[in-house]
Specification:
This is Probable cytosol aminopeptidase. The active site is at residues 288, 362. Its cofactor is Mn(2+). This protein is α/β, with parallel strands linked by helices. It contains 14 helices and 20 strands. It has helices spanning 37-42, 47-53, 94-107, 123-136, 178-202, 210-224, 233-239, 242-248, 301-316, 361-373, 388-394, 406-419, 452-461, 498-509; strands at residues 3-6, 18-26, 29-32, 63-67, 76-84, 113-117, 167-170, 227-231, 256-262, 270-281, 321-331, 343-345, 351-353, 379-384, 399-403, 423-425, 443-444, 469-474, 480-481, 492-493. A hairpin with a 2-residue loop joins strand 2 and strand 3 (29-32). Helix 9 crosses helix 14. The chain is elongated, with a radius of gyration of 24 Å. The two termini are 34 Å apart.
Length: 514
């Protein structure tokens, strides 16, 4: 991953391939942001007018490259838009800094080192810039540039993609200050785990399936002191995990339930996280229509987020117990696949009539939720790319939050907004529950079509233990980005919800669960 350093050099003396400065959108044109004073001086105090001449306005995500003048040790200056100038005496929003740093890092692909002289007035600002730059520098290249055996040995195939920016030198970060050092270390650990989640999401399903995902989790557990338990098909049959088995029985790759347990000797609270891990979702017998299968490797994004969060908690040494449950299965059509009309007996003992095999995520989550609740955690959060209905409701950049406790839902929403992840609280209307009544089983896995995302949440709520605060994050929209990259968001897997979950774990450790 891209390295992060807190530089002791000034903007005028830093030696690097490029220097990144901020420019804001003012009422009368671009405004040079704090942190760029030395650069503006090198331009004779005319940096803003030069940028305006080149068509720059300071709008968010805008990137303008300039040849550096005499007086700077770098050959190139990158001016990145921060959006509107803040109101008087206000600082730039952390998310604006994060996105600007991400845009600049993407523009610097192929560079060895770049200095970031964006406006930093606090430790939080420094951490936001660091996060944005490291997230923006991400690239998934594991399957590119392989050797072409038919070509001369000195030639390679692949698309010739450049490597990401190798080093981010953060200016204005007070490298000798313990708080700034801690912020840099947190940003590095957090982003490394988000990028681990991104890598998993982007890995093709012929290489990432339940058993191989479980192996990745086991290896990470050994590295970071996390206890890992893997239930294979035999153990799932013995334990009666009918949801996981029913979804996975059509595939040659059997299902797994993986438990990751990070514990701290001084922890007073336990947070349980449950992730949907459908490593490939064909829809099963209720086959998805053409055009909807190509990105279904991303249907394990919830499990990837949970996995990354548990590892991040361990690396940060958070004073809280965090248990992650990865409900892993591959949903395929075959002669052994679950059929619409089949009835599954879940781990909880409830029976479920399967009306649609493409509503499979709630089935594997139900088993994992029941098992997680047996350990009586103080709170439980499940994360899933669960419904297309949530994308219709909130779009591609916002995830929905449902909960059985209004205060808990509000806390998670506030945390998500604080860390820069767009989210929205959603209700669980009791009247929608009747649509899942089944004449054959205790409940059906489908209900009313309208409000389908809320129906899915109501289904999950049936499998949450009494007295346990529970929230459901439907990340179907933001988990996988199919468009052009923007800010620090790449094309492909995004690592959605990891920042929210890590901050939730930190709040829980501090006794502020909500």
């Amino acid at each position: 991953m891209t390295a992060l350093t807190l530089s002791t050099a000034g903007a005028a003396t830093l030696r690097a391939d490029a220097l990144v400065v901020g420019v804001a959108k003012g009422a009368k044109g671009p405004v040079v942001a704090p942190g760029a004073e030395a650069v503006d001086k090198a331009f004779g105090g005319k940096l803003a007018s030069v940028l305006e001449t080149l068509g720059a306005s300071g709008a968010e995500g805008e990137v303008t490259k300039l040849h550096a003048p005499d007086g700077l040790k770098v050959p190139v200056v990158i001016a990145v838009g921060l959006g509107p100038v803040p109101e008087k005496d206000a600082a730039f929003d952390g998310e604006a800094l994060r996105r600007a740093a991400g845009s600049a890092a993407r523009a610097l692909t192929g560079s060895k080192k770049a200095g970031f002289a964006l406006p930093i007035t606090s430790v939080e600002d420094a951490e936001a810039v660091a996060e944005g730059a490291l997230l923006g520098a991400y690239a998934f290249t594991a399957y590119q540039g392989g050797e072409n055996k038919l070509a001369p040995k000195d030639k390679k195939n692949g698309n010739g993609a450049k490597l990401p920016l190798a080093e981010v030198a953060l200016l204005g970060g007070k490298p000798r200050d313990k708080a700034f050092k801690a912020a840099a270390e947190r940003a590095t650990a957090l982003v490394e785990e988000i990028n681990r989640a991104r890598d998993l999401i982007n890995t093709p399903p012929n290489d990432l399936y339940p058993e191989s995902f479980a192996a990745v989790a086991t290896a990470a557990g050994k590295e970071h002191g996390i206890k890992v338990q893997v239930l294979d098909e035999k153990a799932l049959v013995k334990g009666g995990f009918g949801g996981l088995l029913g979804v996975g029985q059509g595939s040659t790759h059997g299902p797994r339930l993986v438990k990751l347990a990070y514990t701290h000797p001084k922890a007073e609270k336990t947070l349980a996280l449950v992730g949907k891990g459908i490593t490939y979702d064909s829809g099963g017998i209720s086959l998805k229509p053409a055009g909807h299968n190509e990105t279904m490797k991303c249907d394990m994004s919830g499990a990837a987020a949970v996995f990354a969060t548990v590892v991040a908690a361990a690396r940060l040494g958070l004073q809280v117990n965090v248990t992650g449950w990865l409900a892993l299965a591959e949903n395929m059509p075959s002669g052994s696949a679950t059929r619409p009309g089949d009835v599954l007996r879940m781990y909880s003992g409830k029976t479920v009539e399967v009306l649609n095999t493409d509503a499979e995520g709630r089935l594997v989550l139900a088993d994992a939720l029941t098992r997680a609740c047996e350990e009586n955690p103080d709170a439980i959060v499940d994360v899933a790319t669960l419904t297309g209905a949530m994308v219709l409701a909130l779009g591609h950049r916002t995830f929905g939050i449902m909960a059985n406790d209004d205060a808990f839902r509000t806390s998670i929403h506030e945390i998500a907004e604080e860390v820069g992840e767009a989210s929205w609280p959603m209700p669980l209307p009791a009247d929608l529950r009747k649509g899942m009544d089944s004449p054959t089983a205790d409940i059906a896995n489908m209900g009313e079509r309208m409000g389908g995302g809320l129906v899915a949440g109501l289904f999950l709520q049936e499998f949450v233990g009494e007295g346990i605060a529970w929230a459901h994050l439907d990340i179907a929209g933001p988990a996988f980005h199919e468009g052009a990259p923007y800010g620090y968001t790449p094309k492909g897997g995004t690592g959605s919800a990891v920042r929210t979950l890590v901050k939730l774990a930190e709040r829980t450790a501090a006794g502020d669960l909500g």
